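Recall that a protein's primary structure is simply its ordered list of amino acids. Everything else, from secondary elements to tertiary packing, is in principle encoded there. The following example makes that idea concrete.
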Amino acid sequence: MDVGIVGKPNVGKSTFFNACTLGAAEVASYPFTTIKSNIGVAFVTAPCPCKELEIQCNPKNSRCIQGTRLIPTRIIDVAGLVPEAHTGRGLGNRFLDDIMRAEVLIHIIDASGKTDEEGRPTEHHDPLEDIKFLEQEIDAWFLDKLTDKWKKLSRRVSSEHLDLHKLLAEKFNIVTEEDILRALHITGFDASRPDAWSTQQLQEFSIELRKITKPIVIAANKADVAPEENIEQLKEIGAVPTSAEAELALRRAEIHGLVTYVPGTDHFDVNADLNTAQKQALEKIQHFLYRFGSTGVQDCLNHAIFDILNRIVVYPVENEHHYSDSFDNVLPDAHLMRRGDTSHDLAYKIHTDLGQTFIYAVNARTRMRIKEDYELQNGDIIKIVAAAK
């Protein structure tokens, strides 16, 4: 499961990426700083059961900060896109190919309006135009892929009575048959006669396919220096005000023991004596937190994973009485599962052998045995019982 960080050059994508991962992506104020996609591990947050159960957890695949569990997911920082990227302009198609690997996109825009469509310094640029530009570029890429050899493919469907959704899934190999069937349902186009589709229908279908397979979360970055009218306009369309610089500063301060900070919250605690510059920087950040409730970075990630991709958090254990694994680590792992996944799906997530030898599962909270088709709930603590091989 990959989250793609996208947008034009010089809007703070690499800073956003570093804030999520504490990676070392290069940051500079000129276009194409990122010439290759940076890939790292980011963390979404959820309440850890340790608080509710009043126990001390020992996470292995994740972290717990004051009762908030940080669960890993993969994130891709795609280099900046410019207009006409789908035609190969800039570093075009390579970046669009990278975008296709992601299940959800976080579009970083410069809410301050101080970068133009090419990512160059300017004044009073409308950030709403950047939202349209990115969607148009991806739509154009989808349309190019769709129209490539379309005549031959559509004639085969009509003359040989083949399934359009199956042929298209093979052609795209980045979308599923279910995605295509959903797009067909939304558009209402005749899947048995694609050779009769108009150019307009092809365009509409490619747009629906993009919306289904590449949902976009808008991060209104640099909100700390953006005009209020820009922020209000962007919030009206669901954008999240963010300051990637503030988030990165807090995460680095936490690593150095200067503060205690739970990502996504509206405050932090100072743990050390600070110099004047540090105090001033943290005061500025705290003002942003009071104004917006958080830096917005964690909100974007959580919204992308939990709301857009419909994931839940499940905690597998081996001992349901102590909520531990075989090494006495309490609540050791946290897994992101699809809403609707079953206890048997969780067994396969942990290990293929466990899935193949699955017998039943146990709800650790109730100590009750559950069947393989039990639909997992967010926050479940589950023991898997399997046959010995």
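The radius of gyration is 23 Å. The CA atoms of residues 152 and 347 lie 43 Å apart.
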